[in-house]
Amino acid sequence: MKKWKSWDCHDCGVKEGELHRIGCDMEICPKCHKQLMTCGCFHNESELSFRIPYILILNICGLCGEQWPELFAVPKKEWKKYVIPVLQDKNLCRECFEQLKQIFPNGWKNVKNNYRQ
């Protein structure tokens, strides 16, 4: 029994398991696994030895699990200051990012060790 709902690609309309239409902005590069149309690994589709079929990958907040959180941008320096290393490559919702800033007002690296033996 299938555990998830099937989604069509929002850009080119193919179903999960099918190859994207040429030029689709959702196609993943088989070499670097980033967006094919912007990565620069290949100059045209004839250079591809294989293509990765479309499967919707759920975007969730790495802390609270919210599905499809609104994307936002912060400078890399600010992100690294407040977001602990294990979460730095994850998506976070704005609310969880703001919560981390409250938990670590001086950044996570500046937390004092109050443990006493």
Report what the structure shows:
The protein is built from three helices and no strands. It has 117 residues and is mostly helical. The protein has two domains: 1-57, no CATH class; 59-112, no CATH class. The longest helix has 10 residues, at 94-103.
Layout of helices and strands, plus pairs?
Blueprint: H1 36-39, H2 76-82, H3 94-103
List the domain count as a whole number.
2
Biggest sheet statistics = none
Strand content: under 5%
Which ranges are low-confidence, i.e. pLDDT below 50, for 5 or more consecutive residues?
A: none
Percent helix among the residues? 10-25%
Structure classification = mainly alpha
Give me the Rg, rounded. Answer: 19 Å
> Counting H and I runs of at least 4 residues, what is the number of helices?
3
Dominant shape:
elongated
Order of helices and strands: HHH
Determine the N-to-C terminus distance. 54 Å
